[in-house]
Specification:
The chain is α/β, with parallel strands linked by helices and about 280 residues long. It has a single domain, classed as Glycoside hydrolase/deacetylase (TIM Barrel). The chain contains eleven helices and eight strands. Strands 1, 2, 3, 4, 5, 6, 7 and 8 form an eight-stranded parallel sheet that branches. It is globular. The two termini are about 15 Å apart. One of its GO terms (molecular function) is metal ion binding. It comes from Nonomuraea solani. Keywords: Carbohydrate metabolism, Hydrolase, Magnesium, Metal-binding. InterPro entries: Glyco_hydro/deAcase_b/a-brl, YdjC-like.
Length: about 280
């Protein structure tokens, strides 16, 4: 993958992509800070979410920030539900009682979702970005590794090809599909920051940076600011987000990246190799 991206085989490459842009304002502000002041290099926008308009305005003012579309069929914050951008009556197989299914009902969603309705909703989410005059660089998914189903993954790759975008791939089957097509994918295990323990998290991040192997790795991080909005909106997630932001923007993180000779990249680099 290094050579496909234009780097030497022994280069230590790390995608640091901030997910959930648009979820709420404290997330938006932390993601911008993590890119402009920290080691994050790109982000993923959730167009159905309450602060998506705010996120789009931030991106419009910062055309240098590479961003993707965090394709969304799941709402893990039932107190603040979001739902489809496509007409509800045309995507009924994707819906629960108040909008998109919560994360604990993902199996039910994947069993019921009709692929033609998934396509309709994904196209609506992509159109929300392009109609705003913005140019994304990749597609990925919220709460669904590689889309959650093989046909959803294949649909997403087809949409990416149609729009000239890259696609994130986490797991071996999806990575193998893309490798066979000469597309860039990570060489090593994917890291989702919600999978790390809060206790000792900064130390774990520091260790992972120091021990980063040659080749292409990816961290999906979830920065957020602490505060009244975050605690009310996201009582289970804000500690993860706050601790991500604290490390990503810390002098320690920047110093380790510099001393270790790690090259942090965003998804614009993959898009250039994808197309």
């Amino acid at each position: 993958m290094n050579e496909l991206l234009g780097y030497s085989a022994d280069a230590r490459l790390l995608i640091v992509n901030a997910d959930d842009f648009g979820m709420y304002r404290a997330v938006n502000e932390a993601i911008i800070g993590s890119i402009e002041e920290g080691i994050a290099a790109s982000c993923s926008l959730m167009t159905p979410c309450p602060a998506a308009g705010h996120a789009i305005d931030l991106l419009r003012d910062r055309p240098e920030i590479p961003f993707g579309i965090h394709l969304t069929l799941v709402c893990e914050l039932p107190g603040h539900p979001w739902g489809p951008l496509a007409p509800r009556e045309r995507v009924t197989s994707l819906l629960g009682s108040g909008g998109f299914h919560p994360s604990e009902r993902i199996p039910e969603l994947l069993a019921a979702a009709r692929i033609e309705e998934v396509e309709l909703e994904f196209r609506a989410q992509i159109a929300a970005v392009t109609d705003a005059g913005l140019t994304p660089v990749h597609l990925d998914w919220h709460c669904l590794a590689d889309g959650g189903r093989a046909d959803i993954f294949d649909l997403t790759v087809a949409l990416a090809d149609e729009h000239g975008l890259a696609v994130r791939a986490w797991l071996d089957p999806a990575r193998s599909k893309l490798r066979a097509r000469g597309r860039p994918v990570i060489d090593h295990d994917f890291l989702d920051s919600f999978g790390l323990d809060l206790d000792g998290k900064a130390e774990e991040y520091a260790r992972l940076l120091r021990e980063l192997p040659p080749g292409l790795s990816e961290w999906a991080v979830h920065p957020g600011l602490d505060g009244e909005e975050a605690r009310a909106f996201d009582p289970g997630g804000w500690p993860v987000r706050h601790s991500d932001h604290a490390f990503l923007t810390s002098p320690r993180a920047r110093d380790i990246v510099r001393r270790e000779g790690i090259t942090v990249i965003g998804y614009r680099t993959l898009r250039e190799a994808w197309t």
